[in-house]
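Please check this today:
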Amino acid sequence: MKKVCVCFAGVPGCDKSPLAVRLSWEFGLPVFSNDMIRREIRIENQCKLDIDQYNNRKDGYLNKLLAKGRSIVYDASVDRTWQEFKKRLTQEGYDTFLISFDLSAEFVTRLGSSANSLIESESMQVYFTQHDVFLDNLRTDADVHITDESFADRFDICIKAIDDMLA
């Protein structure tokens, strides 16, 4: 049976996590969630995020999931690390399915996520720049591009495309 890792590229607040949960439910796949790992560490450390602890736990969880040899949904943005991550997955015998959220800053702001309150901040602009660089260099690696225009149909678009890949 084919092992697939469903991955995401996109800025914070672009709705990756709700799609990851929906795809997990639809296909019965475990979800690797960066958000959950960050939350666990903040709770353990009285609201402080220890980056070394985060990286160690993230790597440990991912290694455990990959060792099981099951298809997974990777709920984290791979914009900056895509080539390395794809190489690792390929070495582990996984096919990749990359969903790129190519949304405008205005659209992400309208989504109303708590991360969007930072939309004008320098850090959010860095995320948009990183995603633009990803698109400039690796646009063709994405299996699906979610745009402002296709956002409302993102669940159906992704479910159909993954069904087609698995067929």
